[in-house]
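Can anyone check this?
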Amino acid sequence: MKFNFFPYRRRFVRPVQTNHGVWEIREGIIIELEHKNGKVRQGEIAPIPWFGSETLEQALKFCSSLPTYISSEIIFSIPDTLPACQFGFETALLSPIASIPHSLQFSALLPAGKSAINACQPLWESGYRTFKWKIAVNPIDEELAIFDLLVQKIVQNLPNGAIRLDANTGLSLDESKLWLETCDKFMTNGVNIEFIEQPLPPSEFEQMLELSASYSTLLALDESVATLQNLETCYFEGWRQIFVIKPLIIGSPSKLRQFCQQNQIDVVFSSVFETDVGRTAALQLANELSRHNRAVGFGINHWF
């Protein structure tokens, strides 16, 4: 197959703030494979190195090292140290050209801080019913006060709205317990808090397991399962709550499909702020492999 690639840069409407820092520009690579029948199929390489994927520079170096014509053997020999490249090349090789499935529900990403409160209503009017809010960005007392207002807003104005909290590894053990206690109290009053995502770093997996057994509020792994190897490790070490999978950085989609089919995991597929090329491929996987009817974390178009 004839191979070509094109780097891209997309600026966010407003910077994305997480515990990992401030993100202003999404950079990645679109690849093209011209098959023997003359059809050109695209894939996307969209690394997030602070999540555990390769860097953009490493991906560009790999693409530049390839000849003009490549074989499927080259694609399936891409090392696990280049998971975003594995996904991009394999989807360009194997994924059929198709549209985004219409059966999926989407979760909308809210801005961090107090801006989240006013951001809910227009997103609700656009059709979103699940909202994800980044925590561990500001001091915990400040965020808990905002969360109380956010819950009031959703309960009073957005009936049946669901909330997800994403800490991006930014909480201490005591802070995690405080958030879980707060969420448990809200849930006893009928507030739909779906889960708290990755409160502790991957190195504190045992503590995450203990927390998952101690509270009613569910926990989700995200950074802990950034790659397929991480996902397998956490599953076989006993994690049975929610797995957040970012398809574009997890690695080989065919191996991911095999793992999900063999193990009935509770999974939420999530965006890495990719273009429509990677989004379409990721959502086709989500439509195929999601088993618990959870909203996919791809409600991010309003960030561009």
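Reply from J.R.: I decoded it. The longest strand covers residues 2-18.
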